[in-house]
Sequence to fold (337 residues):
Amino acid sequence: MKKTKENTPSVLAFEKKLVPSDGFMFGTAWENRHEEATPLTLIEKSVRGVISNRLKPTQDADEETKKANLQAVDNCALKADQDTLKLNFTLKVLSGVETPSACDNRIFKDSYISVAKRYIEKEGFTALAKRYAINIANGRFLWRNRVGVEALEIEVKTIGEESTSWTFDANDNIQLNDFTIENDKINALANEIALALSGKKDYLLLDITAYAKVGKAQDVYPSEEMVLDKNNSQSKKSKILYHVNKQAAIHSQKIGNALRTIDTWYPDFSENNNKPIAIETYGSVTNLGVAYRKDKKVNFYTLFDLYARDEPLSSKDDEHYVMAVLVRGGVFGESTK
Fold:
């Protein structure tokens, strides 16, 4: 079915199916990590630094570099008797990817639902679920807190009548960039995620706790808030860290970004040192200033327009990518004007 004005929705939206909470940060000692932990709070520091930014051509380097760089910043660190960061969050996995939350075109909706149901029947979300499970087991959601850890343990528990739990040693050959790993516990977790995504169970609720042994009194890294206008900021701080009721935390959006960092199907995968990127419509990686799927042939909208109208894609990988974007959720309507 070719794309026409008659089968193009101007209103089209999908609710996200991987729903993480904020990640709450605690400090503990590795030997007692399962018994006791204290919430981590932020500390404000006032720093007298030096001028190190690139100067404008009109500025006098001799005068500018003599000045002190006065800063007030938020900081977060373990206590002197703590060597381990504990991060806890929950993850809800929902079904219903085959049904848009909003769609104003019946022809398109019927076509998409048919295609999505066929994908679920044939694939069962097993390929995507395996990748989500690996990103849980390897602790990717810790971001900078994962770098240079001496030990890393991930505990995952299902919440419900039939509770199941798994414990992963993330330093035990569970790599960040390898989605081919075969591990019975990862496969079991992936199976639970796939059952929820495919609608064979209504939902899955996971309680996820990471223990990262980073060293006594070491800094840890909550999410950083964006300071849009430092001059008008009431606090006048140049770095503001995220907290919930004074407890240091990582944004749910940042955890979600880590979990969906599964796209190894983009064109420049090998040129990017075989690193997966987060599932995005244009393959955008903001810290690199690159959009790996900006080419019209490989961006989500081109592939989705074909796939949803039951036209063949060039590979199974493209199908996985399209469905992963829909699991991510978003607003994808197109103006018919």
